[in-house]
Amino acid sequence: MRETLKLWMQITLACLLVAGMLGVTDTSSRFNDLGHKMICMCGCNQILLECNHVGCPDSDRMIQELRAQLSSGANDRAILNWFAAKYGPTVLAAPMQGGFDYVAWIAPFAVFLLATLGTAVLVRKWRLRTVAMPEPSAAPGFDAIRERIRKETEY
Fold first, then answer.
1. Nearest 5°: phi and psi at 47?
2. Which pLDDT does position 108 carry in this prediction?
3. How confident is the model over 64-113, as pLDDT tens digits?
4. What distance in Å separates the CA atoms of residue 81 and residue 34, rounded to the nearest whole number?
C-alpha cells in the first residue's frame, strides 16, 4: 500500500514537472527559429541570422526588431506577420502555411501533374489517330506505279 502511494506521488510529481516545462518558452530557440525563417532585406538574399555582410545596413536593425517582438510576447505567427507587413512577403524565407499561401506550396506540384497527364492524353490520342497503311502488294497496280516513279526520279 505504502509503495503504491509512493509510486503515485512520483508519477504525479513527474507529470507536474512536465506540465510546468511545457509552458516555459525558450526565447533563444524561438529567436534562432524565427531568425532562420526570414531573409535579410539588404539584397543579399541570405537568411537573416546568417547575413555575412560587414556593416550590413539592415540585418542589425531587423535582429533588434525581432528581439523587440519576442520580448513583447507575441506568438511566432504574429511576429512573422508583423515582418511581412513591414517589409513585404519577400522577407519570409518560405511562404507561411495557411490561407492563400497554400497555393505557393500546391501550385508547382499541381501544374507538373496536370502537364504530365495532358502529355499522356495527347500521346494516346496521336497513337489512336494513326491510320494503318495498306500492304504494298494489296493495292492493284502498285508495282507498276513504283517502277514508273523509280524511272522518273533517276538521275
1. -60, 145
2. 92
3. 999 999 998 888 889 999 999 998 888 888 877 677 767 877 899 999 99
4. 12
Question: What letter represents residue 150's amino acid?
Answer: R
Domain ranges in the chain are 2-96, 100-155
| Cβ-proximal residues to 36 (8 Å cutoff; 6+ apart), any chain | 47, 48, 49, 50, 93
CA distance 132 to 44: 61
Q: How many CA atoms lie within 13 A of 80 on its CB side?
A: 21
Query: Is CATH 1.10.8.640 what the domain over 2-96 is classified as, yes or no?
Result: yes
Distance CA 90, CA 40 (A): 10
Q: Contact at 8 Å (CB) between 18 and 73?
A: no
